Amino acid sequence: MRIKNTEGDFGAIRRRFIKRLKGVYKDITALLKQDTLSREDVENIRNIIHKLAGSGATFGFSGISLGASYCEDYLVRALNEENFKSVKPQLTTFLSVIGELIEFHPDEPVLEVKPRMPLSREAKHVYLLEDDHELAGYIAGELLLDDYQVVLFSSVAEINEAVYKVLPAAIIADIILPEGSEAGIDWVNAINKVIKPPIPVIFISEKGDFNTRLNAVRAGADYYLKKPLIMKQLKQALYESVYKKPYTPYRVMLIDDDQLLAEAFKLDLLHHDINVTIVTEPFNAVEEIERFKPELILLDLYMPSCNGIELGQIIRQWPEFASIPIVFMSVERDVRKQLDAIRLAGDDFLVKPIEPWQLSVQVLARVRRARMINFYQEELATEIAHQKIHDQLTGLPNRNYMELKIHELLSDAKLTKGKLLALLWMDIDNFSHLNDVLGHKAGDQIIIDVANRLSSVLSNSDSLCRLGGDEYAILLNRENGQVDIETFCKEVMALFVAPFKIGSETLRVTLSMGVSLYVEGADTTAHEIIKAGDIALYHAKLAGRNNYVLFSEKMAERLSRNLWLESELRRSIDKDQLDLFYQPKFSADGKQLVGAEALLRWHHPEIGLISPEEFIPIAERSSLITDIAYWVMNSCCYQINVWKEQGVCVPPIAINLSARELEDPDFLNDIVVIPERYNIAPGALQIELTERTVAKQDSFIVNALNRLTSAGFSIAIDDFGTGYSSLKNLQQMPISLLKIDRSFVINVPEDKGNSSITETIVRLGEKMAVDVLAEGVETEAEAAFLQEIGCQYIQGFLYSKPLQSSNFLELIKSHASGIEIV
Ligand code: C2E
Ligand code: CA
Ligand code: CA
Question: Which residues contact residue 749 at a Cβ distance below 8 angstroms, ignoring those fewer than 6 apart?
Fold first, then answer.
């Protein structure tokens, strides 16, 4: 902002004011020449004089203001009393005051305007005293962008030496430094005693207590910013320290019907780096507020077309203008009226006449505060906008962001050729289980740790989002040829090989991932990309988790196959398509038959045999699983009874139940009475529940187990070793058998990891006085090892695959001599 020849501009306005006085002098003199004054005349005169009272002092004529306001009081009284004769002498006296002024054309008082020094390049020299190197680097980097020359110091000793050689324009100083916990303040205190005028200082500190702040102020701090720093705030503080004016000029709106007066105010405010817009017609005010965005409004109380209070009330009707302070200006000295004005629309009241210096001081203080409030409001608004598209726990962008971003990337990819664009949709395997077993705090920690690992493979153009729960998405955005999608997926999977440390526990956390690729030239929508990712993820889970699957059209078909299977499964029971196979369990040496496990088979007329691995998960997602369980229970009991009737000794048979059924108390009550119906003892049946099911620390599981055992069933824990159950938890449960999961039996003793896990489980069984069985034994070597470490029982293809009921009957008969009861 430049004001050339300031004095001249103001002089011109003064001359125009004197011209106005001449007009007033003439008008009033003419009225006084009449014999009598009408009410209307007196009212007219009052309006003219009112304006003079409010403006005289502004132009340097305090006498006029004073005289006019006395005169106005008098006129008001005369109007009230309807006594218009008495005003003549009073007016004549006031006229003589004006007359004197006009006659003498007095020398206009010279307004003192200090020329501003142009800023030299050295003004950009800033010293930064900060022993946190990372923060110092960050601040310096940001300030360099604004063209400052920043010199870094990490101790008082260093900066002290430098400051006496070259004076900087400002100092940014930390408080806690190697020299002591208030070393920054002590040093500033010391140099301010010597260096005059003092160097502007901005303190930045973690400390926020009153005493430290007070010491900083006493040492002569210009600003005190608490860490974590808001860079925008630091930049503004620095700018104001160096240039002695606001980062951007303040914006003030002046609403006054007296153009001349308004211009006089404006001129003065401009000197203080305040941009001013003048509105003389209240009708235009709102439009101008929208355009100019004032930080403060100065509003004249008395205007002919619409008074200030009315206009203030109208302005206040816009919620977005509600925080702009409105300051009334008026000659009104009646405190009650002032309060009325403030109550209805305004924040403050300035009594006219206002001398220019007075106005700028008043306005500066208020507009500074207004800007500070605006500044925090903006921060808050940015924060809220940030929250809308970010996740609280990890700070990552959320699903809203992802959708927006896919839209953006897609339209970008359609325009520029050669883009590798992919959505990788992930979820943590068995997360709800981990959460149940380890607790929510640990669950949160896992979510954060997984996010950290994932972000380590990203480049700047990629983004990682948390979609909620345990779901994440990576938006891969690379130039073609930069990376191959399969390689990238493998990199992601490799991140989860190393175990996680959560509190005192060490555990493996794995992900399943579905990938949908943008095909160049295809007219794909964001919705289609997301859906494809979701379908691919579903297939990754079906395929056994801890892997990734690229979307293909076939998958959409598979998905519809699953929907079809579900509807077919509903009819399977009635159509007699289900069957039970029996897989024997043997003593570890393979010699004795000790029991069997009933395994479900589905013979579909069109597609043939369907594996339970495929249809059990489908049944578990609907209520079908319960119907199936009833069917299995009944069929198994029926079969045992048939065998018994043939006079053979049937070993205990195990059936598998899922977690879903146990939640239903009716189910439990129903099944405990089923064996009786077939005339068999409940002890002839064992219930297999996976470790995942029992590791849930829900009370209904414990209740269910107790209900089952008290009815006479024994309990086996299936897939043991995969469910993260705690020892304490296990000991409280009525368990008869641990079944080591097949994955830990594979390739023992060759596989050292598996060998030690199997052996640990066997030792655990001994401690708990529970039998241990190894599932899925396929080789002699595995069997020999298991026998050696003391595992009691074995099940697996080595000794027998699951058998049809007739084949199992043969087996029982051939072992008739040595059946041992588990
Ligand atoms: P599971 O309870 O762990 O059953 C063991 C599975 O491993 C069976 O597969 C069995 O055929 C297979 N298996 C046994 N020995 C070996 C071996 O040496 N090598 C290999 N590679 N596999 C072996 P199946 O019958 O396909 O059953 C799969 C899963 O389906 C079962 O796993 C069980 O979780 C579920 N399931 C089966 N029948 C039922 C049922 O009636 N109800 C419920 N809820 N689930 C069932
Ligand atoms: Ca089983
Ligand atoms: Ca199993």
Answer: 755, 781, 785
Q: Is 302 exposed, middle or buried (0-12, 13-18, 19+ CB in 10 A)?
A: buried
Indicate the average pLDDT of the chain.
87
How is residue 372 written in tokens? 């500070």
pLDDT digits (tens, 9 = 90+) for 600-642: 999 999 989 999 998 998 898 778 999 999 999 999 999 999 9
- Provide the percentage of residues in the chain whose pLDDT is more than 70: 95
Question: Would you say 299 and 346 are in contact if contact means Cβ atoms under 8 Å apart?
Answer: yes
Smallest CA separation from ligand 1 atom 46, residue: 656
Confidence of residue 122 (pLDDT cuts 50, 70, 90): low
- Residue with the smallest CA separation from ligand 1 atom 3 is 719
Question: Mutate which of 616, 621, 624, 747 to test ligand 1's pocket (most atoms within 8 Å of Cβ)?
Answer: 616
Q: What is the mean pLDDT of residues 495-502?
A: 92
Adjacency order of strands within the sheet including 296-300: 274-279, 250-255, 296-300, 326-330, 348-351
The size of the chain, in residues, is 822
Closest ligand (CA of 599): 1
**Phi first, then psi: what are they for 181, rounded to 5°?**
-80, -10
d(CA 558, CA 570): 18
* Model pLDDT, residue 105: 56
- CA distances, 4 to each of 116, 164, 355 (Å): 11, 37, 22
**Residue-wise DSSP of 215-235:** HHHHHT-SEEEESSP-HHHHH
| CA 160/CA 171 separation, integer angstroms | 12
